[in-house]
Design a protein that fits this description.
It contains seven helices and nine strands. By secondary structure, it is an alpha/beta fold. It has one domain: Rossmann fold (3-Layer(aba) Sandwich). The chain has a seven-stranded mixed beta sheet, with helices on both faces. A two-stranded antiparallel sheet has the order 1-2. The longest helix is centred in the middle third of the chain and has 14 residues. The chain starts with 8 loop residues before the first helix and ends with a strand.
Length: 219
């Protein structure tokens, strides 16, 4: 990153305003953003906004396995886009989330940051969205499935679509009980599974029970 970039206080306050709006709803799956500024922290140049998870810590683990330079990323369940916006080296990034306020925040933050990365954000319900058709003829190098499987009814179908459409998947499981069938599905499809992180040590609410894996598919 260019460390000389400074964002105005007006822009930072605008980001905070939109992030705060993501905390106002309990959703149909009983999940909600609990911290003042929502799920993701943002530590980008002079932007320092504290949320539940700290993306740069999560990414430091993942970057030991993957070089994101010029990659095309799909983040399914992107929330407020924290994992995307801490990767300015990406060529393109698509973020999908069912929460309108989260997607609104992503678009505002993208407009303020002005990365060279091509950002696309979609408000979609993953239980009904035909993601396979959407991804047809799109180049996707890596997909994030971060603490997602526990919240999507048809996660098996979604994960199979992901295996078909990219080489690498970063999987974060919510816990070992719910994570086992997810890992078993990838093993059944002859994917290579490597552990990236043993705990969610970036969680500011002390929820450390999540594990992260690099899945290499046969695509």
């Amino acid at each position: 990153m260019n460390n000389t970039i400074t964002y105005s206080q007006e822009n930072i306050d605008t980001i905070k305003k939109f992030l705060t709006l993501t905390t106002t709803k309990n959703h149909y799956n009983n999940w909600n953003n609990r911290t003042k500024y929502g799920y993701h922290s943002f530590h980008i140049h002079n932007i320092n906004i504290h949320g539940q998870r700290i993306p740069h810590i999560r990414l430091n683990h993942i970057k030991k396995k993957i070089n994101f330079e010029n990659l095309n990323l799909l983040d399914i369940g992107c929330n407020t886009g924290g994992m995307i916006f801490h990767l300015p080296e990406l060529n393109s990034a698509i973020g999908i989330d069912f929460n309108k306020e989260c997607i609104d925040s992503c678009n505002i933050i993208s407009n303020i940051l002005k990365y060279k990365t091509k950002h696309t954000f979609l408000e979609k319900d993953l239980n009904t969205f035909d993601i396979d058709t959407y991804l047809h003829n799109k180049k996707i190098d890596i997909i994030f499935l971060l603490s997602l499987g526990s919240w999507v009814k048809y996660w098996e179908k979604l994960y199979i679509v992901c295996m078909k459409n990219c080489k690498y998947i970063i999987l974060e499981t919510n816990n070992d009980i719910e994570g086992k069938p997810q890992l078993d599905l990838f093993a059944y499809h002859n994917c290579t599974i490597e552990k990236v992180s043993d705990s969610s040590d970036d969680d500011t609410t002390n929820n450390y029970g999540r594990k992260t894996y690099l899945i290499t598919t046969n695509k």
